[in-house]
Design goal:
Arc Repressor Mutant, subunit A; Rossmann fold; globular; 8-stranded mixed β-sheet; alpha/beta; single chain; about 45% helix; about 15% strand
Length: about 725
């Protein structure tokens, strides 16, 4: 059989992974090493060479964008539609399972999906309903607790309170939340996975059925899986199907979302005899950039281990700039961007990456002053915008009258005289009788009074009329009719010209989205399928068509992207790595992985910048250069000197092998600080016999009774008496 079209575009390591024997397989794919290519070619190999039916393949990834890209590539490889394959996100595939097995899952056939905002609204209503203080029981924090328990695969009865009354109350709220979801016929994102996992675990024969169907399960971005996602995959695979997972333990940067980098090692324990392949050839960055990234990440323990390399040249050395303060740092970056553009480069080639969103302000200020267009990557996505969520709420009510979150969102939008008291009466009745707000509306008429009851009944009649008028229409005509007849378009036309116009344009775009929507399967009515699609799509960072502008983003947002020139800014201990991670080994290693991700975004040139003095949150601080700078070999780095010399603390790169690295002044000997006035200066580096190295932030008083404030790298900020401090200059 001629397989040149499958293997021709691949390097040797990729070929070995694609043609691996039929066994559990782990592909450790470094940054820029072509992991998506390996996944798609593996699917084609299974179909064309191993003669696996497309119906027997399931591929899972984390975003709808990635799933769409995978689907398009597989279709191009196979030269046939990819519809027989199940390709989608964890949540998307779990949703598909629950729609098929809604009865076994204990769900109504027309269940709705709560998005993040609607989920928080429901939690807020429960907190109020239980008479709890919202300042004490913050709905956002309660929601986080509920989701985190579900991500760990735990129901309320399985959560241990550890004798903690606060935790006990959170468990009660979790119980009340589950009951409200059951009553309303809704599920949240976390519930999709947990409920489908429980299906496989508890419904006799169901897991065996899907194992027999899906003999090959492929998982992308495996390093980002959390507890329930790993358990879901493991339950699906069982002991008969063959998992093929691709991931990079050096790019696991979502621990705060529940991602467990340990799952890569656990996979090797749970599936004995796992075949391991390493993709180490990088097609993105220069040799020097990769050498720096390898050096940084080598300081992490517990890695499976790999080393990126490129067949291209070493390229330019990494440029290190030490700014006097954050404004000096921003001015340097903006000037370099101007130089790049003046030499014929494009603005979009340049990306400014930072650890904290708060760092963007000064860069924005300097870019504006220089009249350089820029875009802060992120912000509200289409399905998260207020007017879109309002329209979707009306559409969800048309599809499911018992959706309380949607009912509350639009019952008085546009304003129609349904006030807070009316909603309180409805909530009380619904809670007492175990019904939805919609079902409570008619029995409550006598309690509400004629006017309030009339306004409420007018709303019910409106939704019923929308349902009747749109039944049988094409999907986009349904959407168009609802946004017009509900009064939403007229409502937003009344807002200020630009803002109102933009909202109306977004509503019109929703109609276009409905017109272009093609359901993956015909099991659901088009409207219900579209509503599920809208929720599953919300919250994803899907790129838009950008003008030629500088791109700014956090390091977390930058994952998966690449740019010719990268400015990795704010490299100071306490900022990056973040202060809360400095004393936590797991946290520090995740910060180092984040630095690795940022470094490997650069294709041709990488700049590292830091400031000796930085004002954040209204406070001036004097931080030490990030330890990550010190982990880069000296020969890979070229320090950029400022054009104008200003008075600043001394900085001397260490000698090779000194162990101190960049950002630490290395001297032959130290001297003890005396207690005379002026013996210490702001920004001076000192060493304490117990607390280690730090930077002087403040000095008060004179002599042995004077005080000095030092920000220690590992112990944080401390005040010390001069007479007892025993500090040495460094």
């Amino acid at each position: 059989m001629d397989v040149s079209h499958l293997l021709g575009p691949l390097n040797e390591a990729q070929r070995q992974a694609v043609t691996a024997p039929l066994a559990p397989t782990l592909v450790l794919a470094g940054a820029g090493s072509g992991k998506t290519r390996v996944l798609t070619h593996r699917v084609a190999w299974l179909v064309e060479v191993e003669h696996v039916s497309p119906h027997g393949i399931l591929a899972v990834t984390f975003t709808n964008k990635a799933a769409g890209e995978m689907r398009a590539r597989i279709e191009a490889q196979l030269g046939m539609p990819s519809a027989p394959l199940w390709i989608g996100t964890f949540h998307g595939i779990a949703h598909r399972l629950l729609r098929t097995h809604w009865r076994e899952a204990g769900l109504p056939q027309g269940f709705s999906i709560l998005d993040a905002e609607d989920q928080q609204r429901l939690v807020k209503r429960l907190v109020r309903g239980l008479g709890l203080d919202e300042a004490r029981w913050v709905p956002r924090e309660v929601t986080w607790f509920i989701n985190s328990q579900k991500d760990e695969g735990l129901r309320p009865k399985q959560v241990v309170d550890d004798g903690d009354p606060t935790r006990r109350q959170l468990i009660r709220l979790y119980e009340a939340y589950e009951e409200a979801c059951r009553r309303n016929g809704v599920v949240d994102f976390a519930e999709l996975l947990l409920r489908s996992y429980e299906l496989w675990r508890e419904v006799p024969g169901l897991a065996e059925h899907y194992r027999a169907r899906f003999g090959h399960v492929l998982v992308d971005e495996f390093q980002d899986t959390n507890t329930i996602q790993y358990a879901w995959m493991k339950a699906l695979v069982g002991s008969t199907s063959l998992p093929f997972v691709v991931g990079d333990d050096d790019q696991s940067i979502y621990r705060w979302r529940g991602a467990r980098v340990e799952n890569l090692q656990q996979f090797r324990k749970d599936f004995p005899g796992v075949l391991l392949f390493r993709l180490e050839q990088n097609y993105r960055s220069t040799g020097n950039i990769l050498a720096a990234a390898n050096a940084i990440i080598s300081n992490n323990s517990g890695r499976i281990g790999k080393k990126l390399w490129t067949s291209d040249g070493k390229g330019e050395r990494i440029r290190l700039y030490r700014g006097f303060n954050e404004r000096d740092e921003a001015e340097f970056v903006v000037n370099r961007i101007r130089e790049w553009v003046s030499r014929g480069g494009q603005r979009r080639d340049n990306a400014i990456l930072y650890r904290s969103n708060a760092q963007s302000r000064v860069f924005e200020e300097y870019l504006l002053a220089s009249r350089i267009p820029y875009r802060v990557y992120g912000g509200l996505r289409f399905f998260e915008r207020q007017e879109i969520k309002d329209a979707l709420a009306y559409l969800r009510l048309v599809a499911n009258r018992d959706d309380d979150a949607s009912f509350e969102r639009v019952v008085n939008l546009p304003t129609r005289g349904v006030g807070a008291r009316t909603l309180e009466v409805l909530r009380a009745h619904a809670k007492t009788h175990g019904t939805s707000l919609w079902a409570a509306a008619t029995p409550c008429a006598e309690e509400l009074g004629a006017r309030a009851a009339g306004c409420l009944q007018a709303f019910l009649a409106l939704v019923d009329r929308l349902d009747a008028d749109t039944r049988g229409l094409p999907l986009h005509e349904q959407v168009d009719h609802v946004i017009q007849a509900s009064g939403l378009v007229a409502h937003y036309q009344k807002e200020k010209a630009d803002k109102g116009e933009a909202r109306v344009e977004n509503l019109e775009e929703l109609v276009s989205a409905a017109r272009g929507y093609a359901p993956e399967d015909g099991e659901l009515p088009p409207l219900m399928s579209f509503l599920s699609h809208a929720v599953l799509e919300s919250g994803e960072g899907q790129a838009e068509e950008w003008e030629d502008c500088v791109q700014m983003m956090t390091l977390h947002t930058a994952k998966g992207l690449e740019f010719p020139v990268v400015y990795l800014c704010g490299l100071e201990d306490g900022l990056f790595p973040h202060q809360r991670s400095v004393t936590d080994l797991q946290g520090l290693e995740e910060e180092r992985r984040l630095c690795y991700v940022g470094t490997t975004r650069a294709m041709r040139q990488l700049y590292l910048t830091y400031a000796e003095q930085r004002r954040m949150h209204g406070i001036d601080s004097y931080g030490a250069p990030s330890r990550f700078i010190a982990e880069i070999p000296a020969e890979l780095v070229e320090e950029v000197r400022p054009k104008v010399q200003v008075s600043r603390p001394a900085y001397v790169p260490p000698q090779r092998g000194s162990g101190s690295g960049f950002g630490t002044r290395t001297v032959a000997s130290s001297r003890f600080v005396d207690d005379s006035p002026g013996s210490l200066k702001l920004g001076q580096r000192v060493r304490h016999p117990k607390f280690g190295d730090g930077v002087v932030l403040s000095v008060e008083g004179q002599g042995p009774n004077g005080r000095v404030q030092v920000n220690f790298e590992r112990q944080g900020t401390k005040w010390l008496m001069m007479g007892y401090a025993h500090l040495e200059t460094v």
